[in-house]
């Protein structure tokens, strides 16, 4: 019986691949890209075959047998392996820790029942015969030019589709996609959206327009069975359109021909734990690898993409006008709240504007990026505030279930009846969250149908969708929400947006805060007046109406704002003119974390690399762990990458009990 050696990547933090013996009997020699079951310590685990060899340096007596190969599943392609390999290298993680978690859980279990069931189910799945697609609107000249440029591109072609809110970018994606699918009989298209709540709207559009085409969706709210089926449909090439959130960038797509990243600026494209990858950046890499067009769409592009477009590395396609006839961008007005506070956090102008919408039967949206009732409760007699015992954070009052909750470690308690320090029974909520705004609105407008959409109101599966549907069905007069409602949604009858309190991010120490705030405000403002009709407006309540960020918002001038921020970043030597990574450490005592970082700093030589002093993180304590960080910078990406590689090696060998992690291209500093 012939033997061969399978070199296998496993999902472990050990930066290594492992060799196993395979007795190829009737089943033949396995292939690179197949999944195999192997013994690992006391367990049996599924790994990925990255090489098939005739011999190995591992001594015979140490070599274990691979137990099985998942031969019912076509091997993952060399391109997919290269993608996982690139992500592993770039983000400084072992290959197995990137590749395996990128696959559905049901593929990584010892039993093949779920896989076999999915294969059978997919085999039987049929699409309707000769279905009639919904009519596509006639594109305006800008949209047409954009769709044609994308669909007609040869080779690697990154596009920045820069179109104001409501300019019909979705329609450009759909029609470019239609052209590509018509031309490529097997071709696949990948469409990414930043948030799960944006998938249903787009899914409905895609299904109506491509009824004869199989669509897969990939996001974190699928059950494991669904995820397996949708992943498999993409892997087998049956699903020709794959719609998903950031994790879908790691889908196996053997016939990929076009990638679309909607709202490309959105921070959700960056995974914030484990493998801290940027789905947008991986998308561009994947398009380059496969020599495809990739479309980055946004009304407020990230400064990185904006910079690439200015340098001519990305081709900019512009949509300057709203798509619907007569629809214009809303007029933005600043309301100075530094002198007159108004009633329950709402200025007179805002209240009047809501009243007017109620009379006209139009909808209003109040945006406040803070959930809960109030961010803290306090004792007016001794000054006690509801701090979290485990974090450097305040406990937020949630009035719907009468609890205080820490949003960082999820510690919960009943609202105390009296002050824990002085016994005073008069505890006051301080500041406002979405629940409190909802309550005040209901008191001010008893006849209004008020709906709150935030992470708390949409915990149950399907509830976010129900909420958005009821807004679309005009069953809501006033919508109150966090960033969940701020982007992408195409509300037809919404003519007023009130921005409650944008000031807290104006003076943040994170240099990205103003970029993020501006994008967020432009996006939420862009929910108003999308269908024309009566005049729409955006009212911004601020104590700093003279701040330049607001002048740019009033003028809808993203170009100006982006160019001036970029100018500042260049002078200050910040990204995108500089490349960064952060080493974070956590320990029971802050000093231990700092000490570890100081030691880490001296582990390897670092010419051409700046390693800053270790500092406590801006939120130093979470869940009783003290956290500190070390910022590493270089003007050269290859130099930074080379340094990180050696550094990680040294850190892995450096014995420590401190928990640490590295993030490349951090977005939160
Ligand atoms: N050519 C067209 N003719 C008429 N209506 C159109 C056309 N293209 C798009 N629309 C409509 O314009 C509205 C806005 O389009 P869409 O939601 O795609 O905007 P968007 O550019 O994605 O905006 P945002 O950046 O705010 O998400 C939708 O109601 C859409 O149906
Ligand atoms: Zn906490």
TrEMBL record:
Q: Catalyses which reaction? A: ATP + H2O = ADP + phosphate + H(+); Couples ATP hydrolysis with the unwinding of duplex DNA by translocating in the 3'-5' direction
Q: Which GO terms describe its cellular component?
A: primosome complex
- Name the enzyme's class: isomerase
Q: Which cofactor does it need?
A: Zn(2+)
Which Gene Ontology MF annotations are present?
A: 3'-5' DNA helicase activity; ATP binding; DNA binding; hydrolase activity; zinc ion binding
Q: Name one GO biological process term.
A: double-strand break repair
Query: In terms of domain of life, where is this protein from?
Result: Bacteria
Which Enzyme Commission number(s) are on file for it? 5.6.2.4
The record's section on PROSITE patterns has:
HELICASE_ATP_BIND_1
Q: How is the cofactor bound?
A: Binds 2 zinc ions per subunit.
Give binding positions for Zn(2+) 1: 379, 382, 419, 422
Q: Which InterPro entries match?
A: DEAD/DEAH_box_helicase_dom, Helicase_ATP-bd, Helicase_C-like, P-loop_NTPase, PriA, PriA_3primeBD, PriA_3primeBD_sf, PriA_C
Q: Does the keyword ATP-binding apply?
A: yes
Q: Which residues form the Helicase ATP-binding domain?
A: 150-319
Task: List, alphabetically, the Pfam families matched.
Answer: DEAD, Helicase_C, PriA_3primeBD, PriA_C, Zn_ribbon_PriA
User: Which residues are involved in binding Zn(2+) 2?
Assistant: 388, 391, 406, 409
Q: Sorted alphabetically, which keywords does the UniProt record give? A: ATP-binding, DNA replication, DNA-binding, Helicase, Hydrolase, Isomerase, Metal-binding, Nucleotide-binding, Primosome, Zinc
Q: Which family does it belong to?
A: Belongs to the helicase family. PriA subfamily.
Biological role? Initiates the restart of stalled replication forks, which reloads the replicative helicase on sites other than the origin of replication. Recognizes and binds to abandoned replication forks and remodels them to uncover a helicase loading site. Promotes assembly of the primosome at these replication forks.
Q: How does it assemble?
A: Component of the replication restart primosome.
- What is the name listed in the Swiss-Prot or TrEMBL entry for this protein? Replication restart protein PriA
What species is given as this protein's source? Pseudoduganella guangdongensis
What is the organism lineage in this UniProt record? Bacteria, Pseudomonadati, Pseudomonadota, Betaproteobacteria, Burkholderiales
Gene behind the chain: priA
């Amino acid at each position: 019986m012939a033997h061969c050696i399978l070199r296998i990547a496993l999902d472990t933090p050990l930066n290594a691949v492992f060799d196993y013996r395979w007795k190829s009997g009737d089943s033949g020699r396995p292939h690179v890209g197949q999944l195999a079951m192997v013994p690992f310590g006391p367990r049996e685990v599924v790994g990925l075959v990255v090489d098939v060899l005739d011999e190995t340096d591992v001594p015979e007596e140490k070599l274990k047998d691979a137990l099985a190969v998942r031969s019912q599943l076509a091997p993952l392609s060399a391109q997919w392996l290269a993608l996982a390999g690139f992500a592993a290298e770039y983000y400084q993680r072992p290959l197995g820790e990137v590749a395996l978690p990128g696959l559905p859980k049901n593929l990584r279990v010892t039993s093949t029942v779920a896989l076999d069931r999915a294969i059978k189910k997919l085999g039987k799945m049929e699409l309707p015969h000769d279905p009639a697609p919904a009519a596509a609107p006639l594109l305006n000249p800008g949209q047409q030019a954009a769709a044609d440029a994308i669909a007609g591109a040869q080779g690697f072609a990154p596009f920045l589709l820069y179109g104001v809110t409501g300019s019909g970018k979705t329609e450009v994606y759909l029609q470019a996609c239609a052209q590509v699918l018509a031309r490529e009989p097997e071709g696949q298209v990948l469409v990414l959206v930043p948030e799960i709540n944006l998938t249903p709207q787009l899914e409905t559009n895609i299904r109506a327009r491509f009824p004869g085409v199989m669509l897969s969706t990939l996001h974190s709210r699928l059950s494991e069975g669904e995820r397996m089926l949708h992943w498999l449909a993409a892997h087998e090439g049956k699903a020709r359109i794959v719609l998903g959130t950031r994790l879908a960038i790691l889908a196996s797509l053997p016939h990929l021909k076009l990638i679309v990243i909607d709202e490309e600026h959105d921070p959700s494209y960056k995974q914030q734990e484990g493998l801290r990858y940027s789905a947008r950046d991986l998308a561009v890499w994947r398009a380059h690898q496969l020599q495809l067009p990739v479309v980055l769409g946004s009304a407020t592009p990230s400064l990185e993409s904006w910079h690439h477009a200015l340098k001519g590395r990305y081709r900019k396609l512009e949509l300057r006008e709203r798509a619907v006839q007569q629809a214009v961008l809303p007029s933005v007005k600043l309301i100075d709240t530094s002198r007159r506070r108004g009633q329950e956090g709402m200025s007179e102008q805002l209240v009047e504007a809501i009243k007017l919408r109620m009379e006209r039967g139009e909808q209003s949206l109040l945006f406040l990026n803070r959930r809960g009732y109030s961010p803290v409760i306090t004792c007016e007699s001794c000054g006690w505030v509801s701090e979290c015992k485990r974090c450097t954070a305040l406990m937020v009052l949630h009035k719907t279930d009468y609890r205080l909750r820490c949003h960082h470690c999820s510690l919960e308690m009943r609202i105390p009846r009296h002050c824990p320090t002085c016994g005073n029974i008069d505890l006051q909520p301080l500041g406002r969250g979405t629940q409190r705004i909802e309550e005040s609105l209901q008191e001010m407008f008893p006849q209004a149908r008020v709906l709150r959409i935030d992470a708390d109101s949409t915990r149950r599966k399907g509830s976010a969708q129900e909420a958005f549907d009821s807004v679309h069905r005009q069953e809501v007069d006033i919508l109150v929400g966090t960033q969940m409602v701020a982007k992408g949604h195409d509300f037809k009858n919404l003519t007023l947006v009130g921005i409650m309190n944008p000031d807290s991010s104006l003076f943040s120490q994170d240099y990205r805060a103003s970029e993020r705030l501006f994008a967020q405000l432009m996006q939420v403002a862009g929910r108003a007046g999308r269908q024309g009709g009566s005049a729409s407006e955006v009212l911004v309540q601020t104590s700093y109406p003279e701040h330049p960020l607001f002048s740019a918002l009033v003028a809808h001038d993203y170009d100006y704002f982006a160019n001036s921020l970029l100018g500042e970043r260049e002078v200050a030597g910040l990204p995108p003119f500089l490349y960064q990574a952060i080493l974070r450490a956590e320990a029971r005592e802050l000093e231990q974390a700092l000490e570890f970082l100081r030691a880490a700093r001296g582990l390897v030589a670092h010419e051409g690399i700046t390693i800053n002093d270790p500092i406590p993180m801006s939120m130093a304590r979470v869940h009783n762990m003290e956290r500190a960080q070390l910022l590493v910078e270089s003007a050269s990406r290859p130099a930074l990458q080379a340094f990180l590689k050696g550094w990680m090696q040294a850190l892995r060998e450096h014995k420590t009990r401190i928990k640490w992690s590295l993030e490349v291209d951090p977005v939160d500093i």
